[in-house]
Structure formats: C-alpha cells, structure tokens
C-alpha cells in the first residue's frame, strides 16, 4: 500500500501545528470475528473549536463501524500508543513511490529574513528592473514637458476632453510639434479657417493631426472640383471637423446619394451639404428612415419632401420619435394641413413643449385659428419663431404674466 504524498503533507501540517509533544494514534489491530480493519484515528489534545468538531466527526465515524461489528469488548492489548517518529515510518513505507505522490518536507524550506545581512558579492548579483514610465490618467502631468501639448493648449484645445477619449492622450504626446502639428495648422489656415476655430476643430477631431497632407489636399481639391468655394469648404470643416478624414470615394458616394434620393440639382445639393456638412460624415440610416417616415407615415408628396429637406436639412437627421411627436400634434391636434407644414417646415425642428404650450394658450383664449382664410389667422411661423414677449403682445394679445401663469397649469 502506497501513502499519497498529499495525505502525508496534510497529516504533517495538522500534527506539527499542535504544540503538544505527543499525539496518540489508536491502532485497532485484528478484531475477532470481523472482516473490517480500522487503521487510525486522531485524538488531539488542547484543540480548537474546529478541531473538536473534527474529533466528533471521527467519533461518529468509528461508532458507525463499531455498530456493524458484533458486540464484543476490545481487549486492552488491541490499543497501542504510537509516537510521531512512527508516523514518519508509516509515511516512508517500503516500496517505490510514484512521481506524482512525492512528499515535500515543508520544514526544510528556509524563509530568509528581510533583515538578514548579505555579502557584497550577493548584493552585486541582485537584479533591479529599469524604472517604468509613470502611469497617469491626465495630460496635466505632461503639459510642462511636452512642447506639443503646451502649444495645443495655447491654441485653445480642450485637453481635458481629449484625455477622456481612449488612446488620444498617448497619440498627442508622441507627436512632434514642428514636424507633425505645424504643417497641418498651416494647411487649415490656408484653407480659410480662422485662428479662433483651430482649437475647437482639433478638440473635436484630434486625428486630423495624423492625416497625411497629401490626403487632406486631395479631399479639398475634390470638393473644389464639385464647385464648392474655398469659403464653403472652410465653413464645412469648421462645422464638421471629421469631414477631411473621409476618403474622396466616400465623399463622392455621399454627394451622389443625396442628389439621387432627394432629386435635387447639383446647386441645391451643394447648398444642403454646405448648411449641414455632417450629412457627409454621419450614418445614412437615420436619413433613409426619416425619408420613409415623411413619405409613408406623414403622407408628404415627393416635391414636399424636397422642399422640407432644402429648407430645413436637420429634418433628415432628426430623432424619429421627436419628429413623429411634433407632426402628430401639429397635423392631428392643431389641424394644420400638409401644405401649410410644407410652407413653414421649421415647425418640425421646433421644440415640442413650446408648440404645445402656445397652442393650448391660444385655444384657452379662443384664438387658435390656423386656416389662412380665417380673419384671426395665425401662421406657424408666428406661432413658433417669435419670442415669448412678442408672441403675447402681437399674437395672443395678452400680457407675458398671464402666459407665464398659464404655463404653470399645463
């Protein structure tokens, strides 16, 4: 029979941790008229609560086995105390021990003290790893040491926003100001971007500093070939800083998409894109969805959709839920027909709360008339575009205090 090395280690750790010098091990030798042999049982003196629980477990274990044996008294010579030295003999029984059952003497492992003196030869052999670069979560620690960060800060770049974006801080630290930053700043200046616009542009799109000058120039040349003026390109870059990060092929595809889907001429397409240049940068899915909503759900004709998109390009990228909410209230609750909404499509881009409060106030006063042939006709432009004071004095014909008191009841 081989003794498992883990079992031996466990028994040693349990026995050696007890301060008592002797631990009695009961050996139950051959019992008369029984085929069952019980090898060992541990009885610990001065044990803790946990050890006493284990002792009770062992006692129940022996009681279960004794119940299966005929009721005979165990002779006194059957119990024999054994010392720790005999336990070592049991663990080192004769016969080969498998490699995975090798026991380890934990007491033989030395634990050097940190206060132990060592020789000069041993001290020389100690390897000290090189200092690691400091880890930081803010660019503030590098501003005084980096010329690039210092000059970007002077240009008005918001470093606190850039450090929140992943990998942007490390990218800026690695840039050389004279080699990487200055040429692109001069490119933007030549394009027509004003000095006060450089900081906000680089804050929104710091990756512009990593684009090659050849690619930037190629994209600007393409826009100019489509008859975009230099002023228009500069304005588009200021409104949509990511515009110059897209390839010429993508820009061409976007311009073709809007011209085809809206059925606009080249001149009107340029006008729409110049006023809302993010149409060339963002996803096309919201645009496609809003076009379908305007046609299928709202019931606008194709020419009406063209007029709405030309007058208010933001309708193409507006939130579908908000757009539906406004149209439903204006068309179904206020009773405004399609042609009047098309005549003043800015109402679809207004705040829903303003439309609702003003309509309810006019309805309360009995002045909610939106039919052009009515003597007290109120246009959507006057309903939405005027400030509160002018709306109250010229449209509602009441005081601002009355309107504010009414707003508290809504």
UniProtKB/TrEMBL annotation:
Gene3D superfamilies noted in UniProt: Transcription termination factor 3, mitochondrial
GO molecular function, one term: nucleic acid binding
Gene Ontology CC: one annotated term: mitochondrion
Top-level taxonomic group: Eukaryota
Official protein name in the record: Transcription termination factor 3, mitochondrial
Main location: mitochondrion
PANTHER family per the UniProt record, alphabetical: CGI-12 PROTEIN-RELATED, TRANSCRIPTION TERMINATION FACTOR 3, MITOCHONDRIAL
Similarity section: Belongs to the mTERF family.
């Amino acid at each position: 029979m081989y003794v498992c090395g883990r079992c031996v280690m466990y028994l040693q750790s349990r026995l050696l941790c007890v301060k008592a010098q002797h631990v009695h091990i009961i050996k139950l030798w051959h019992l008369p008229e029984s085929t069952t042999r019980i090898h060992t049982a541990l009885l610990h003196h001065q044990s803790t609560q946990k050890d006493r629980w284990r002792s009770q477990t062992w006692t129940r274990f022996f009681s279960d086995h004794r119940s299966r044996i005929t009721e005979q008294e165990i002779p006194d010579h059957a119990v024999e105390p054994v010392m720790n030295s005999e336990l070592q003999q049991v663990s080192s029984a004769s016969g080969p021990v498998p490699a995975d059952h090798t026991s380890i003497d934990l007491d033989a492992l030395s634990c050097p003290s940190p206060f132990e003196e060592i020789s000069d030869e041993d001290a020389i052999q100690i390897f000290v790893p090189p200092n690691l670069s400091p880890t930081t979560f803010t660019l503030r620690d590098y501003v005084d040491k980096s010329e690039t960060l210092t000059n970007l800060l002077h240009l008005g770049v918001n470093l606190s926003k850039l450090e929140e974006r992943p990998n942007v801080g490390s990218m800026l630290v690695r840039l050389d100001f004279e080699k990487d930053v200055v040429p692109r700043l001069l490119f933007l200046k030549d394009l027509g971007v004003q000095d006060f616009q450089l900081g906000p542009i680089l804050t929104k799109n710091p990756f512009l500093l990593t684009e090659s000058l050849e690619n930037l120039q190629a994209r600007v040349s393409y826009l100019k070939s489509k008859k975009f003026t230099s002023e228009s390109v500069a304005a588009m870059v200021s409104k949509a800083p990511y515009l110059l990060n897209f390839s010429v092929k993508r820009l061409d595809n976007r311009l073709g998409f809007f011209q085809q889907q809206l059925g606009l001429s080249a001149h009107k397409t340029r006008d729409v894109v110049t006023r809302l240049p993010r149409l060339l940068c963002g996803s096309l899915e919201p645009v496609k969805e809003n076009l379908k909503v305007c046609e299928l759900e709202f019931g606008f004709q194709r020419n009406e959709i063209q007029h709405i998109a030309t007058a208010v390009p933001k309708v193409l990228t507006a939130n579908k839920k908000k757009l539906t909410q406004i149209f439903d209230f204006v068309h179904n609750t206020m009773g405004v027909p399609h042609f009047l909404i098309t005549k003043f499509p800015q109402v679809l881009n207004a705040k829903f709360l303003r439309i609702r409060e003003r309509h309810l106030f006019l309805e309360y006063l009995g002045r909610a008339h939106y039919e052009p042939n009515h003597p007290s006709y109120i246009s959507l432009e006057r309903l939405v575009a005027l400030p509160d004071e002018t709306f109250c004095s010229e449209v509602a014909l009441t005081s601002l205090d009355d309107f504010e008191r009414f707003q508290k009841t809504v």
